[in-house]
Amino acid sequence: MLPPITWLTTQEATDHFRVSARTLQRFRVQGLLKAGLHFRRKFPTTNSPLLYNRETVEQTLSQQFIGRDVRDLETAES
What does the alpha-carbon distance between residue 72 and residue 6 come to, in Å, rounded to a whole number? Predict the structure, then answer.
């Protein structure tokens, strides 16, 4: 049996990953976070808030930013 998916609201995701909502949006626009895999809408309408899959986002960000703690991306020097 698969473990249950942990869905985070945008606010919870920004707190957990220590990034801004704008950074999450940038990751979506750049294609780093993909709809259906990393995030989904709470309800099937365009104004519905987004929910983020904690496990898949964490895994993707860890792979993308090897050697960095994904929760410190916002404070890391470029």
Answer: 20
Beta strands in the chain (DSSP E): 7-9, 39-41, 50-53
Distance CA 3, CA 76 (A): 32
**Start-to-end CA span in the chain (Å):** 41
Q: Tens of pLDDT along the chain (78 residues)?
A: 777 899 999 999 999 999 999 999 999 999 999 999 999 999 999 999 999 999 999 999 988 876 666 555 555 544
Pairing mode, if any, of strands 50-53 and 7-9?
antiparallel
Angle at alpha carbon of residue 27, lines to 26 and 33, rounded to 5°: 145
